[in-house]
Amino acid sequence: MFIAASERSVGEIAEALELAQPSVSKHLNVLRSVDLVTVRRDGRRILYRANAQTLKTIHDWSGMFAQHWRGQLRRIKAHAEEKR
């Protein structure tokens, strides 16, 4: 089960992750507060879905740092290998 694939209830997410429902609810509230998940009420159920647009923005932004750190790690590795 993958939350981004479709809407899921807290109970479904908790079961899939093998976590307690209160813990999942707490985390979902944090994710909701930063717009990483969207919420829709269906009768008594509250359904959550990953917000793909926000996740893409974060992915793109963090990608800039990944490029930087790859270069840094290559330099560290080269330096360590020189010391051997």
Mean pLDDT: 89
Integer-rounded radius of gyration: 19 Å
**N-end to C-end Cα span:** 47 Å
Low-confidence runs: none
Put simply, the count of helices is 3
Structural class: alpha+beta
Number of strands: 3
Strand content: 15-25%
Helix content: 55-70%
Shape, per Cα inertia axes: elongated
Strand ordering within the main sheet = 1-3-2
Q: Main β-sheet, in a few words?
A: 3 strands, antiparallel
H/E order of the elements? Answer: EHHEEH
Would you kindly provide a written description of the structure presented here, covering whatever features stand out?
Helices cover 63% and strands 17% of the residues. It has three helices and three strands, in the order βααββα. It has a three-stranded antiparallel sheet with strand order 1-3-2. Strand 2 and strand 3 (45-50) form a beta hairpin. The termini are far apart.
Summarize the structure.
With 84 residues, the protein is of the alpha+beta class. The protein is 63% helix and 17% strand. Strands 1-3-2 form a three-stranded antiparallel β-sheet.
Notable characteristics:
84 residues; alpha+beta
Secondary structure topology:
Blueprint: E1 8-9, H1 10-17, H2 21-33, E2 37-42, E3 45-50, H3 52-83
Antiparallel strand pairs: 1-3, 2-3
Helix pairs in contact: 1-2
